[in-house]
Design brief:
The complex is a heterodimer of chains A (about 190) and B (about 375).
Chain A lengths: L1 H12 L62 H7 L42 E2 L10 H4 L11 E2 L1 H4 L22 H4 L3
Antiparallel strand pairs in A: 1-2
Chain B lengths: L7 H28 L9 E3 L8 E7 L17 E2 L9 E7 L2 E6 L4 E6 L5 E4 L10 E6 L5 E5 L4 E5 L5 E5 L9 E7 L2 E6 L4 E6 L4 E5 L12 E7 L2 E6 L4 E6 L4 E5 L12 E6 L5 E5 L4 E5 L5 E5 L12 E7 L4 H4 L6 E11 L6 E9 L4
The chains are: A mainly alpha (about 190), B mainly beta (about 375).
Chain lengths: ~190, ~375
């Protein structure tokens, strides 16, 4: 009984939510107590645009970059992370251990995945379907914890940048006894 | 005079009988014309979109040297030879000089050196005795030596003109050093440090000469300085989370701040790499806005370059940019007819199918 309670106890000890997580920059002097600004670009009004000298007819209504609404679109759920987690801004990077080919990846590199942690795990790549070593997407997404935006594996498939579950490494669910891995992979 | 009668009937009959033979080559070769390799369509995209007003043209996006220049034997003239078909995986910092493009490729732990004039190529950094771990920016020093910022090693690696490793440079204090961008000025190497949010000054022999800047939002303070370049008497630094460009004087004191963080035209979302051409045009790659901002030497916005949707000229997580003041013929040939080129620049995309994107700055000749 105690063994069964252990994962629940460990989860309960974790701090859920942005506050106190590695993405909580609100206590840093530079943040101006802005919890969202480090990752999300503030929306400006048209009056705050700068007119380019080489294009008098530029559409100053145009906005650039990824919006909050689009972060679950295929690709954005990885790109927004790679903006910092590429070995420059964020120390916790996604190193690549070599040139081992990974799953076909159309977003990060052609025919090569972006290595992850101490092993290669593709991101920005199509989730394999019809493969007996992987659960069907409907099963993967059934619980709502792991998502496959537009059928792709993105960073946000396994990680929650807002840390709502409070799991280590900001995972979307506990990986106790490889539970997260087994959501997709058939053992 | 009796007219000479041409045996018209016979002639006509001969011509008629020869008609099928005359058509034979056409019959044979017409289908083959469909099998011939189609001429590649240029990937031109104009900025502004109106061709007549275009000041910048996207010429080509590519991943390999031999997509630009006819393959040549591996150079081997600098570092180790590299096959011309070698591709970039996730390019970041770049620099261009004397027809050579130097491209940092952290996942492959090397800096590619591609000669865009003669197609030779080489690489630095993956020697067993001094391998790079995470090269993210490269700068050329007087005399042909090369400085490479390695964020994982926490050092600047110096290579001599012959490709041999010379030394590693770190601040003397022993504190965490994460160099993410380099610039050379006079006899100094300037290194933007993402760990301390400051800029270090080193001599080319590695002597640490001090720092300027610190973490913050004030004048001369930075929130992850990720790009640095010099022009005339100014040092320009991209302040990524500060969402701005800062100009500093040669001594590191604050000059002015340009731009603000935001999602509108001319705002900065995540400014990263910066390069300044001989003409003073400042190129800033914005990884989140997915564009390159061009500004004049006073910091005024000229244009934001980058297609709004996938296709020619679309940039995916652009983080590096190199100015090309004297483009070799292989690059100039890619431009549209009658586009008068003043300079070029190349952008590195860390994601997407095409990792390098080449653009030309100029104008169409009057009436073209």
């Amino acid at each position: 009984m105690l063994a069964g309670l252990l994962p629940a106890l460990l989860t309960g000890l974790a701090v859920a939510g942005l506050k106190g997580s590695k993405h909580d920059f609100s206590s840093d002097d530079w943040s101006d107590d802005d919890k969202c600004g480090a990752c999300h670009v503030p929306h400006r009004s048209e009056e705050e645009a700068e007119k380019p000298l080489w294009d008098e007819e530029a559409d100053l209504n145009r906005t650039f970059g990824w919006s909050l609404e689009e972060t679950k679109r295929a690709g954005d759920g990885t790109l927004i992370c790679l903006r910092c987690h590429d070995g420059t801004v964020a120390r916790e990077t996604i190193p690549v251990t070599g040139e081992r080919p990974t799953a076909v990846d159309k977003l990060v590199t052609p025919s090569r995945g972006w290595g992850h942690g101490s092993s290669d795990h593709p991101v920005g790549a199509p989730y394999p379907t019809g493969d007996r070593y992987y659960h069907a997407p409907a099963i993967v997404e059934r619980s709502g914890e792991v998502t496959l935006p537009a059928g792709n594996i993105e960073c946000i498939s396994c990680h929650d940048p807002h840390n709502e579950s409070g799991q280590p490494y900001m995972l979307v669910k506990s990986n106790y006894r490889s539970a997260l891995c087994l959501t997709c992979h058939v053992k | 005079m009796k007219p000479v009668r041409i045996n018209s009937t016979a002639s006509a009959r001969t011509v008629r009988s020869r008609r099928p033979l005359l058509l034979l080559p056409v019959i044979i070769f017409a289908p083959l014309a469909g099998c011939a390799s189609p001429q590649p369509q240029p990937d031109w995209a104009y900025f502004p979109a109106d061709r007549d007003r275009a000041r910048v043209v996207h010429l080509k996006s590519f991943n390999r040297l031999d997509e630009i220049v006819a393959p040549a034997q591996p150079g081997g003239w600098f570092g180790r030879a590299e096959s011309a078909s070698a591709f970039v995986t996730a390019p970041t910092g770049m620099t261009f000089r004397d027809d050579r493009l130097y491209i940092c490729d952290a996942p492959r732990r090397r800096v590619h050196i591609w000669n865009l004039k003669d197609g030779t190529s080489g690489r630095i950094g993956d020697r067993d005795d001094q391998p790079l771990i995470s090269p993210v920016d490269v700068e050329l020093l007087p005399g042909g030596s090369v400085a490479i910022a390695d964020t994982e090693r926490g050092s600047i690696e110096l290579y001599a003109a012959d490709g041999s490793h010379r030394s590693s440079i770190r601040p003397p204090t022993g504190e965490t050093f994460r160099p993410v961008a380099l610039a050379a000025t006079g006899d100094e190497i300037l290194a933007a440090d993402a760990a301390t949010h400051s800029v270090h000054r080193f001599s080319q022999s590695g002597e640490h000469r001090g720092t300027f800047g610190k973490q913050g939002r004030g004048d001369g303070e930075f929130l992850f300085p990720t790009g640095i370049a010099t022009h005339a008497a100014s040092i320009w630094v991209t302040d990524m989370l500060g969402g701005r460009l800062q100009r500093l004087r040669k001594d590191g004191t604050f000059g002015e701040s340009v731009g603000r963080r935001g999602n509108r035209y001319g705002n900065f979302a995540a400014p990263r790499g910066i390069a300044i051409g001989r003409n003073g045009i400042i190129h800033i790659a914005d990884a989140e806005a997915q564009c390159v901002q061009l500004r004049n030497e006073r910091g005024r916005l000229l244009l934001a370059v980058g297609a709004e949707r996938p296709g020619p000229g679309f940039l995916t997580l652009p983080v590096g940019v190199a100015a090309i003041d004297d483009p070799p013929p292989a690059l100039s040939r890619l431009a549209p007819p009658r586009f008068d080129i003043t300079s070029m620049f190349i952008v590195s995309n860390t994601a997407g199918d095409d990792k390098l994107a080449l653009f030309a700055i100029g104008q169409f000749e009057n009436g073209s």
